[in-house]
Amino acid sequence: MSAEPHLTDVLITSRPLANYLDFFGLTSADLAGQRILDCPGGASSFTAEARALGADSIALDPTYGKAPTEFAGIGRDQIALSDDWFRSNPQLFLPAGRGDANISAIIAARHHALDLFLSDYENEPERYVAGQLPFLPFPDESFDLVLSSHLLFTYADRFDRDFHLAGILELLRVSAGEVRIYPLSDYLGITAPWFDDLIAELRHLAVGVTIAPVVFRVTRSWTTQLILKPQTL
Ligand SMILES: C[S@@+](CC[C@H](N)C(=O)[O-])C[C@H]1O[C@@H](n2cnc3c(N)ncnc32)[C@H](O)[C@@H]1O
Asked: Residue of 12, 81, 106, 222 with fewest CB within 10 Å of its CB?
């Protein structure tokens, strides 16, 4: 076990749609017919799988634009880093995220998600938009639902409060419906000291804010998601 676990870089993870449904308390039926942005998409298969369920989904990430073959190598290397993270830091995980069998199942699901992502990334490149928060290359209210997992708050050790406020307001700008963000603490489970203040500022800006429990988890501390509704004033 690492004495002081630390992630040097922001990981480019490959999560399946099933994980997203758990994080955000959604069902497959919630996605059909919706314009959805996955920001950041990483090497996750949400966008591909959501389209197969009838959604009009798009992913954004600064890494898009690389050749699929290059992305395949990066994706596999990144899964190996995640595997090592799970095995080196069992104290961060619930039983579902610990032990050889559970970790191997999670890693197999990530490889499957990476394969789905790579195929879609190659065949439907217009669905994978290069860009980065806090500026998104989309007109106002382009989406009905905006999902953001494992960037905001997760890496609060390197992205400050101003970045988070600007990034969240930008996600709200491009959403005509909701913005959902998960998780709300960093990869070690530490909540940013400015978290409550940021939530208060969003409420002051007339953003509808709900902090909702997440039912299925493998991580000990990532217990809640943030559901935001665009400014009502
Ligand atoms: C841990 S992955 C999360 C991917 C996916 N949402 C998931 O849950 O598996 C974090 C992603 O954030 C991307 N990223 C880093 N800085 C960013 C920024 N300023 N704006 C948008 N995405 C960024 C990285 O390239 C990486 O793919």
From this structure: 81
Question: Which residues are CB-contacts of 189 (< 8 A; sequence separation ≥ 6)?
Answer: 92, 219, 220, 221, 222
58, 147 contact by CB (below 8 A)? no
Give 233 Cα–ligand 1 centroid separation in angstroms.
31
Q: Show me where the domains of the chain are located.
A: 17-229
Mutate to test the pocket of ligand 1, among 61, 66, 159, 222 (most ligand atoms within 8 A of CB): 61
Give 95 Cα–ligand 1 centroid separation in angstroms: 26
Domain 17-229 matching CATH 3.30.230.10: the answer reads no
pTM beyond 0.85, yes or no: yes
Q: What is the rounded CA–CA span in Å between residue 50 and residue 56?
A: 8
Q: pLDDT tens-digit profile of 173-217?
A: 999 999 999 999 999 999 999 999 999 999 999 999 999 999 888
